[in-house]
Amino acid sequence: MARAVEAREKLGTQQAENETVKAEFQKLKPENAIYKLIGPVLVKQEQSEAKTNVDTRLSFITSEIKRVEGQIKEVESKAEEKKAEIIATQTALQQTQQPPA
């Protein structure tokens, strides 16, 4: 559960960062240059390519968030099932330990 929640938080952070980048891209004029950091070097990139990359990344992150949230719900569901099993077992055990009246 902790790993799934951690993954969801990480994806949420990545989504926020990419949404910020997308918002900044919308402020650009066609003549503005975009540079991509590749290792220690800045490489010029076409605006359309950069925007497409960010949109693709956002789409991927959104699908990953849905997948991870599904995992979280599944784990929560299994935890609730186990909790119900434990309560039923405890109740049955308590009933067998009570002396007859």
Structure description:
The chain has helices at 2-27, 47-97; strands at residues 34-38, 41-45. It is mostly helical and 101 residues long. The chain has a single domain (2-92), classed as Helix Hairpins (Orthogonal Bundle), CATH 1.10.287.370. Strands 1-2 form a two-stranded antiparallel sheet. α1 packs antiparallel against α2. It is rod-shaped. The two termini are 45 Å apart.
Jot down its keywords.
unfolded protein binding; Prefoldin; Helix Hairpins; mainly alpha; 76% helix; two-stranded antiparallel ribbon; 2 helices; protein-folding chaperone binding; chaperone; 101 residues; single chain
Please give the structural blueprint:
Layout (H helix, E strand, L loop, with lengths): L1 H26 L6 E5 L2 E5 L1 H51 L4
Antiparallel strand pairs: 1-2
